[in-house]
Batch of 4 targets.
Target 1
Amino acid sequence: IFRFLLTMSYYQLSVQNWFSLHRLQLLYNHSIQATFNATRIYAPASYSYHCEHVSSLQRYDALLIPSSANDLSKLWEVTFIDFQIQGFNIQEGHFAYAKDCASFFSPAILMGLVMSLILLLVLVYALHMLIHLKSLDRHYECKASPAYFAQMKDNDMGDEKEPLRSSGNESYELRNQQFSKIYI
């Protein structure tokens, strides 16, 4: 015989009654053979509780813990598969909507959140770089100006240039090599 010891409590934060499984007792020949304390098995009183595995084994997350070290419950391994319980507000012999024991943050969900955060950071960095990108045309307009040649007086030009002999065209060669300044 399995004996489930359930309690109901009212919680003001959720504004409703909740039931919880405190203890599981195994009886054989009308004597208690093993007692297990239940952990994390609770649900609103109008719901049922469902879990794929409720067990005393560590591989199934050990929701049932032996009540004492001296008890015979250490010798027992108890596992309920597709466990569902509802202690209160049972209507027409059917279970109500079930509160499941599965957590909201599985490793897959957690890795998806981490990857989304990394991708979001990359996107923000790319947008930051695009906003601060400057046009090349505008950049070169500010940095480069047309070559600047200093104005020379006509009388100075006579000293610095020498006529070249050519066939009818007038050409001059500059004697002084430093005649202009270029600013870039």
Note: The chain has three helices and ten strands.
Target 2
Amino acid sequence: KMSSSIQIKSKSSVQKIKTSPLPCSPQAAVKPQPKPSDKLNPKTIDPFGAHTRPPSTFAAIYAKGGIPCRLMHGSVKHKLQWECLPETVPFDPLLVILAEGLRETKHPYTFVSKEGFKELLMVEGATEKTIPLLPRLVPALKAVLAHSDDEVFGRGLDALVQLSAVVGPSLNDHLKHLLTNLSRRLMNKKFKEKITVALQKLEQYGGKVS
């Protein structure tokens, strides 16, 4: 009887966890901690290795409900549905997580990270919320711009321009970490015009110093 009552309790507690709504708070976007049992579970080990690649940090957080927005499929174009107003979402760490998610190459993570990053930067007060995060956002964008995938690089370039438009001259001190990756692709005809336009906008938003 005791063992059965314990099982019932544990089941009900699991159900509570699954059905509880996601709060729009900093805790909602915290990186999930893997359970020790996950490493020891032989079911997760595939000797052929094709399907055992662990999900990326962004994919894991998205799967656990740590990104408070979801992809809505539309007949003409897709859009994001936020579980609460973007203005109420904590930028730290969500904006950084979305920036890291720009490296994703799989749907829906590609769309969610790109649109989520863009829409967060459009909310009122975004400048004040974003500037303190630059030391963490810039390394994330640097990794995106260094990616071998052309689409990932394109998303990174768009995100950099969006970021520059929001934080203005505050980005100037960080530009040196990003320009190397831009210059590498400048030789590529595919990106030459787009990078040139992006550099002009960085200069426009950053002022004479940039």
Note: The chain has ten helices and two strands.
Target 3
Amino acid sequence: RRDVLVLTPWLAPIVWEGTFSRDILNAQYLQKNLVTGVVTFAVEKYWFFIEGFMTSANKYFLAGHHVNFYLFTDSPEKIPPLQLSPENQLFVIPVHNDSRWQDIPSCRMAIISCYIQSWFRHEVDYLYSLDIDLQLLAHVGVEIIDALVATISSWQVTPQHRDKAYGTRSGSPAATPEGQFYYTASFYGGSVAEVYELTRACSRGVMQDREKGLGAGGQHERHLNKYLLQHRPTRLLSPEYYWDTEL
């Protein structure tokens, strides 16, 4: 494709439909006997999205490959019966509104890093974090697999909306300079080791913000972008992979 940017200045590929051969990548991936994990959170009213997310992810996310889904929820009793492919597994992890996880949306980085250290690193080779209200409409395959993977925000590629993507409190260590890629926190991942370092660093940044009284929403996304400015992703996914329906 020549109509889009397919390589970053630091020579990381930007994955668009039509820039890869899924058959070749599938054959290479199968030889390595890898397991990929998906982390998602369904707390409070978001339990409503569980069935739609799991049905579409079971059908389209790394179809034919072994995937472990790790679902954090405060409403495990509301999970409907789900029919998963034989190669997929669902692990439901209850979370409670106790002193440890008072604000789950802004604590998700800390939760992920904690569970990587205690559990996920023993079961999966790669780990991706996806929002529960995401609905997959087409195949998302092994073209997403790399050491550190980020998805370009769809708000960045629409000039009239760039302020939303770049808007951040100047007092926060997560301020991102305009002109850089801006990434969504709704879809990121990579090797377990890299995701552990990312989530640990971002959770520290969120805590620093709180100590300074900068407790605005969207902290995890701003700190994700700060981290990826200092630790360049090895692969970028185009906005095709997570398009904001508001646009």
Note: The longest helix spans residues 192-211.
Target 4
Amino acid sequence: ICLIAHVTATTMPHEDAECRKGSAPNIHDPATRGLSVVVPSYNEENRLPLMMDEALDYLEKRQKQDPSFTYEVIVVNDGSKDQTAKVAEEYCKKYGSDKVRVISLERNRGKGGAVRTGVFSSRGKTILMADADGATKFADIEKVEEGLKNLRPWPEGMAISCGSRAHLEKDSIAKRSYFRTLLMYGFHFLVWFLCVKEIRDTQCGFKLLTREAALQTFSNLHIERW
């Protein structure tokens, strides 16, 4: 079973023909940007502007301070039924298609499929997953960059740095109902018990990957949903 999974994963097509018009960059190509930010978005017309304003303000200031720093933001519209694509395209017009790109999927594939589509179209040496709801302050990318740096030497260039909001858990619990808090702890226990024991906050959507790690990780992704 493992052998079949490996073979089918590495031979999966890395192009989503239905979501692009014309040719697009590919993760198999050499990196031409310092950072790619992949933003999966489903019905996010209201929250996306706040996140994009904060992210692009930070990225533009950083580029002015360090002209060698280059970036791109890839908004993956995951078959939204609202005006998410239109909102994202406004940023493309404002900052230029070289810095902001919009990929629209014809049907909803789920967060996994949306992130994978953005990753396979990225041009960055490092690739950041960032949620459209802006739950994580974008300037905190410096913390995950430091975490990635501290992992050196990277085996075959592969490393992943995961953001975490676990230290804010007490504040968030105060705003939740008892039932939701119980569900949260139950879900966290199942994830810890059945899947991942080394990462405390698996649900934080703020993760930084080297290009090599992103290729290996998303080439082996079979489940595209949440």
Note: The radius of gyration is 18 Å.
